[in-house]
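Progress against Task 2.4 (sequence-to-structure conversion) is shown through the following example record, which the project officer requested during the mid-term review.
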Amino acid sequence: METLFREEGKDYVMEFIGRLDTAAASKIEKDMEVLNDCMGHDVVLACDKLEYISSSGLRIFLGILKIARAKGSHVYISGLSDELRRVFTITGFVSLFEYR
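Structure tokens generated for the chain above:
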């Protein structure tokens, strides 16, 4: 599992590549700490290359959402595959996030 962080205008973009499973979760959580300082920036979780997300990965996404909302920022998810969209729908996460 790999993440790539970049700034695009006023957005903080975190791109996910591979499988966000329990084994990768602690590393990814550390990689995502850069998003904690998102005041004045919206966050985009780019999932175009994300192959799988476990409950641990969903928990990480939820944590970023809580931090960003507390700072007045929005969290967008982009590039969800049909399979990942089903996971978000089944878990109720589909209604928590905004999509691009």
